[in-house]
Write the structure tokens for this entry.
Amino acid sequence: MDLLGDADPTGAGPGQRLMVSRALPLIYERVWRPLGGRLLMGALGPDMEGERRIALAMLRIGDGDAVLDVACGTGNFTRAFAAAAPGGTVVGLDASRTMLAQAAREPGGEGVAWVRGSATDLPFRDGSFDAVCCFAALYLIEEPERAVAEIARVLAPGGRVALLSSVARGPVPAGAADAVVRRVTGVRIFGRDELTGALREQGLTDVRRRIAGLAQFVSASRPPA
Ligand SMILES: C[S@@+](CC[C@H](N)C(=O)[O-])C[C@H]1O[C@@H](n2cnc3c(N)ncnc32)[C@H](O)[C@@H]1O
């Protein structure tokens, strides 16, 4: 379902333009994303299967759950969520037509609802989802703080969220690293406490972070009603 029409909320940087290209989705899942994960997380970081295990452990998806995968790309995580939520509702949302077209072609995603929409203006009511994931995308999204606020808004009481994004490490100040990397690639480098702080500001609790190389996995939950 395309809820954006002619609108394109993805940015103008090289990283963002690649995501809406025709070519990248064809090699995204099997070549681009595993290589990118290695570069970001280092040789000892989790591989794609490991990342899926981390996402599932953070999201604790069960039978009948409603699950949203924000910026789902070709659905490489969304399909695992669908398998973990028999009888549930699983939505993969992305702004890229070409990524979603590839997602719909991949086997295993038959029960998933693919939605073309914006991470910064999620087309869902407050508290709609038991679990919300956003992996490898906040650093490409133009207004990531708005996306975090939207993710928190659609999370039901007792719901869980899992994020994977960049994090500044080492002696170079986060602001300087971000300024250089973002200008060249369009990819944002988050300060160490930026995402965890943003989740807390949205009223989420149990905020936990696991760092792998230049990446951070962050989980949190909305307190039960
Ligand atoms: C690197 S892919 C991540 C895909 C998948 N989540 C993963 O971990 O492999 C980033 C995705 O973010 C999407 N994206 C970027 N800006 C967006 C926005 N404002 N709203 C929705 N999706 C966006 C891109 O189209 C792209 O598919």
Remarks:
- Strands lie at 66-70, 89-94, 113-116, 129-135, 155-166, 205-212, 215-221.
